[in-house]
């Protein structure tokens, strides 16, 4: 359970524990499978859907003998769409409003359950793939979480998250159920079905999928008072929300391990982070950034101030900017990590 963050990964990251390394790589393979299952061919009639049936999805994507069984496909729906005129001028930019973005898998192998000490549930998300998802990524101002995704606390301001991310998670149509509703239905079934045994929920993703993983974890821990341990293992994720959002995650006991490549610009957006360690900006005349408190307050009010969440494992691709955001790069960095304390 320490690999799931029950002790906030204390003593496991510096130096990186070899068994934890294997677990990080194992969850990274579930994300790789999400990419391999996605139909990237824009000329295909099945573009933006899953290439394989649930029954053989992991095997068909090259992930053999995991001990997990896929039980649900996941779709995300975009609010924004490419302008109509682009469909004729740039037909390759067209994309469906709702796209396959990942899956839910449950460990059903007795040997793997024994090894883990529990039955594990994996929710795996791919990164940005369609033009509509890119447009949602650009909607980067912070917006308030809906009431059913947060708990009131008079000691904190309203939790806020990136608006495009929240759109992808909560949007539904007459034909498409929202990703949020699908997640809630499946978790409810899983928690009821396995209520008499140890259970964990591990949410993993890369890039956009990393951000969705964090938002999904927040939703599950807020919605389900009887939820088992919920952990996030994310790769190359952008920022998700403000300081109150981070406080909500911590209050709910959500465990988040962010794998970050210091050369990856995606991990440094959207927005900016200021005065992250000072609780009350108004009481501080000058922050660690050297910025006057009144200016910090003004910038926070513009809804562009984000906060980092969880525990970070920081790596470096040593200047390979061209591939620094690729999931493969992240997994190679973890696999070859040499416990350099200057990078940890």
Automatic annotation (TrEMBL):
Chain segments annotated as coiled-coil in the UniProt record: none
Subcellular location: Plastid, Chloroplast
InterPro entries: AB_hydrolase_fold, Fungal_lipase-type
Presence of keyword Cytoplasm: no
Fungal lipase-type domain mapped to chain residues: 122-272
Broad class of the protein's primary localization: plastid
Keywords, ordered alphabetically: Chloroplast, Hydrolase, Lipid degradation, Lipid metabolism, Plastid, Transit peptide
Family per record: Belongs to the AB hydrolase superfamily. Lipase family.
Record-linked PANTHER family: PHOSPHOLIPASE A(1) DAD1, CHLOROPLASTIC-LIKE, PHOSPHOLIPASE A1-IBETA2, CHLOROPLASTIC
Protein name, entry field: Phospholipase A(1) DAD1, chloroplastic-like
